[in-house]
Amino acid sequence: MTEKKRIVSGMRPTGPLHLGNYHGALENWISMQNDYDCFFFIADWHALTSDYEDTGRTREFTRQMMVDWLSAGLSPEQSTLFVQSHIKEHAELFLLLSMITPTPWLERNPTYKDQIDQLNNKDLSTFGFLGYPVLQAADIIIYKAEGVPVGIDQVPHIELTREIVRRFNYLYGPVFPEPQTILTKMAKILGTDRRKMSKSYHNAIYLSDTPDAIMKTVSQMITDPQRARKSDPGNPDVCNVFEFHRIYSDSSLVAAINDDCRSAKIGCVECKKMMAKNLSDALAPIREKNAYYTARPDLVDDMLASGEKKAAQVAGATLAEVRAAIKI
Question: Are residues 22 and 128 in the same domain?
Fold first, then answer.
């Protein structure tokens, strides 16, 4: 029997999960559980890189993330699920890697520059924010992961991890494998304002939203900006609502809306109502499971504790090798 390849990935607990999180990562994680030895962690230390001034709800968001994961289909029987900060080896390896990582490697990180521009309402001129790719590298290689499932925007981070691994192995001997990028398919899904869906941008639809909340949010979505009146022909190719139809409506309805929008037989309000109904129906099983796990916090905590026990064993063994290699 062939041993499964190990993969590692994580998410920051900054609030309830939205459709961007689901289609951008979680959906792919769920599909990988049968084929890989999966380690998925709640990255609460990473949440501090941009939200260090407001940590009051971090524990609440951590449990909420686990609830969202379980509701969407991650299984503690198939994957190792845990909280990053509960495995202290991450922090020690981060410290050791920071000693050998050149600062210019971090300063050229494109995500660093982009986030500085996008989140200009926050002071991100901290060592933690500059150095978070080193912590990310530690998160990955502490489990000797062979692969990391990411979207195209995260590829530079994995390449930096590989550079850090090569430098460590050159200095101290071969301890870590170089993790490979596993590019995952991502549905094209934007926020209600056509920017990247993000809690920070207040443009998200959440997995746990009620039907009424979904309808309200969808009613505010941007459609074809050139279509001023219902009698004007629309262009589904530039309409964000139509992109949601592609995912959540059946093919016959998608084809009908495509034709009717272009010929002005259907208005944006009616189109939005149909999409909101189909989206709400698709999320109904997740909402039901979410309510089940939310009402059972002790069960959720027990599942996390079980995952943390396994993660700690693997991380501890790796760190022992690291200490021996560095001779400390």
Answer: yes
How many Cβ atoms are within 10 Å of 75's Cβ, its own excluded?
14
Between CA 88 and CA 108 the distance in angstroms is: 28
* Closest listed residue to residue 89, CA positions, set 24, 139, 148, 153: 139
How is residue 228 written in tokens? 């001023």
pLDDT of 133 higher than 80: yes
pLDDT(285) > 60: yes
Q: Are 172 and 318 within one domain?
A: yes
In this structure, what are the phi and psi dihedrals at residue 300, rounded to the nearest 5 degrees? -65, -45
Which residues are 79's β-sheet partners? 38
CA dist 128 and 124 (Å) reads 9
Q: What is the pLDDT of residue 50?
A: 83
Among candidate residues 156, 192, 164, 177, the one with its CA nearest the CA of residue 276: 192
Q: How many CA atoms lie within 13 A of 251 on its CB side?
A: 0
Task: Classify burial at 258, counting beta carbons within 10 Å of its beta carbon; exposed 0-12, middle 13-18, buried 19 or more.
Answer: middle
Write out the two tokens for 211.
């039907």
How do residues 225-266 score in pLDDT, each as one tens digit?
899 899 999 999 999 999 999 999 999 999 999 999 999 999
Domain count, the chain: 2
Q: What is the DSSP string of 169-198?
A: HHHH-S----PEEEE--------TTSSPP-
* CATH code where residue 18 lies: 3.40.50.620
State the pTM of this model: 0.93
CB 272 within 8 A of CB 241: yes
Does a structural domain hold residue 168?
yes
**pLDDT tens digits for range 183-241:** 887 766 899 999 989 887 899 999 999 999 999 999 999 999 899 899 999 999 999 99
- Please give the C-alpha separations between residue 230 and each of 233, 269, 277, in angstroms, as whole numbers: 8, 9, 21
CA atoms within 13 A on the CB side of 85: 11
| pLDDT in the model for residue 221 | 95
